[in-house]
């Protein structure tokens, strides 16, 4: 049957598609490096992160090429390019690079919708939570703002290939019509075909049609299309999606959980502030200006670490939150870089390195931390790499794009971790995440005695 190989431009994207695969019963891991992939032979799906979202075109393509060759050497048969649900990064450049490494008759079928997260595509336009993509917070992203909602227009600025579309009417008409239109687009010389879809049933139809055509395909999507293609090809089985729940969730933890927020979105701020309302939760604010400036970085790291240690030594505290933007105005990173003579992107990098150092010190000095919740893609990858991790064995998601796994490699192997992008979730998502870490940790570590089971104990 072969293996599935997926290239993602960042870690949270890799875990998003990976948990969809894992939920379908496909053994899946995401790795940070194409040179070190422990346990790769045990996997049915291998995900590599190219860390290319913020790179210029040539460097992004070089990173994708390196990942592609590693996957090819690992006996991968089916390839996917994982895209951000908000279409950040050089998607067109990276599609072109993957197509250049595949057979000449390969067609990139792009299905950018992720209905589980209220991301849909209609008329070639990306719509998120009822808003055009360019009208959401992603237009203000510090490193990769997206100001275009029309996906073909976006791709035309990046890809050298002809782009065709498969509209919603075609999808609604069924598999045979989908196949006919795809044949037509291929005959027209289109190498990339963008497909509308507004629900999972439509994505399934597209996947089934593509599979029946038996073409050489590069799947391009945030995860659901790759998942459905895998199922139609005999990998795993479809699992019912968890219904979204906007009702209030109470914090219920009996172990220690460390929360680290590098995301500065309003959504993340609200989630953390809601989590911090509980008496057994506490928030510590790291000064981002001090983390950016090399002259004050170490002092800030040591101060925050000692505060974290003291809080965890308090028996009434289970959850410690470290944040840099939830309780104060967001630092103007561009101005700070100009003030300190730093390169573009270096301020954000320094903040994430500082947070990673604090996490490592906390794990070294505090016993029985059940897991780490990291929100913000760059924060997550920087922290896990600093901990010596080689990758993540994916388990499941809490909600779509909020992904549970265990660290692979390094001194903290098997530590539970959950990662989430800054734009994902509702007011109670952080509470839900912390509860999930505690639940999984207790299932694995709490000795049972007498009657009953762990599900009853933690309920």
TrEMBL record:
The keyword Nucleotide-binding applies. Residues 258-426 form the Four-carbon acid sugar kinase nucleotide binding domain. Residues 4-229 form the Four-carbon acid sugar kinase N-terminal domain. One of its GO terms (molecular function) is kinase activity. It comes from the Bacteria. Keywords: ATP-binding, Carbohydrate metabolism, Kinase, Nucleotide-binding, Transferase. InterPro entries: 4-carb_acid_sugar_kinase_N (IPR010737), 4-carb_acid_sugar_kinase_N_sf (IPR037051), NBD_C (IPR031475), NBD_C_sf (IPR042213). Belongs to the four-carbon acid sugar kinase family. This is Four-carbon acid sugar kinase family protein. It comes from Tetragenococcus solitarius.
């Amino acid at each position: 049957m072969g293996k599935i190989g997926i290239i993602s431009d960042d870690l949270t994207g890799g875990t998003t598609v990976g948990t969809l695969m894992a939920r379908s019963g496909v053994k899946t891991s995401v790795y940070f490096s194409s040179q070190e992939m422990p346990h790769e032979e045990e996997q049915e799906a291998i995900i590599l992160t190219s860390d290319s979202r913020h790179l210029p075109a040539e460097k992004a393509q070089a990173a994708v090429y390196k990942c592609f060759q590693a996957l090819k050497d690992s006996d991968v048969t089916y390839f996917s390019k994982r895209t951000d649900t908000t279409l950040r990064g050089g998607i067109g450049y990276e599609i072109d690079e993957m197509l250049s490494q595949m057979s000449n008759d390969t067609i990139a079928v792009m299905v950018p919708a992720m209905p589980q997260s209220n991301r849909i595509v209609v008329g070639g336009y990306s719509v998120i939570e009822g808003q055009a993509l360019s009208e959401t917070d992603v237009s203000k992203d510090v490193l990769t703002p997206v100001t275009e909602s029309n996906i073909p227009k976006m791709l035309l600025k990046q890809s050298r290939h002809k782009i065709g579309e498969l509209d919603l009417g075609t999808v609604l008409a069924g598999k045979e019509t989908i196949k006919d239109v795809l044949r037509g687009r291929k005959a027209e010389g289109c190498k990339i075909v963008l497909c509308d879809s507004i629900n999972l049933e439509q994505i399934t139809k597209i996947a089934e049609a593509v599979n029946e055509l038996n073409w050489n395909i590069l799947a391009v999507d945030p995860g659901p299309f790759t998942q459905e293609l895998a199922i139609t090809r005999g990998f795993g089985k479809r699992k019912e999606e968890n219904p979204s729940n906007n009702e209030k969730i109470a914090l219920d933890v009996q172990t220690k959980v460390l929360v680290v927020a590098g995301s500065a979105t309003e959504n993340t701020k609200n989630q953390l502030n809601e989590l911090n309302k509980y008496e057994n939760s506490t928030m510590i604010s790291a000064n981002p200006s001090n983390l950016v400036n090399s002259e004050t970085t170490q002092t800030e790291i040591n101060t925050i670490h000692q505060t974290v240690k003291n809080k965890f030594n308090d028996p009434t505290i289970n959850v410690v939150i470290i944040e840099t933007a939830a309780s104060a105005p967001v630092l103007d990173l561009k101005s700070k870089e100009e003030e300190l003579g730093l390169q573009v992107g270096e301020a954000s990098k320094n903040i994430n390195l500082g947070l990673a150092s604090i996490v490592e010190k906390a794990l070294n000095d505090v016993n029985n931390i059940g897991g780490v919740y990291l929100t913000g893609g760059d924060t997550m990858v920087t922290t896990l790499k600093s901990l010596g991790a080689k990758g993540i064995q994916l388990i499941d998601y809490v909600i779509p794009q909020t992904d549970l796994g265990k660290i692979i490699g390094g001194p903290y192997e098997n530590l539970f971790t959950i990662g989430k992008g800054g734009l994902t979730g509702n007011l109670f998502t952080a509470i839900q995440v912390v509860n999930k870490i505690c639940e999984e940790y207790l299932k694995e570590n709490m000795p049972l005695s007498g009657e009953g089971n762990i599900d009853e104990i933690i309920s």
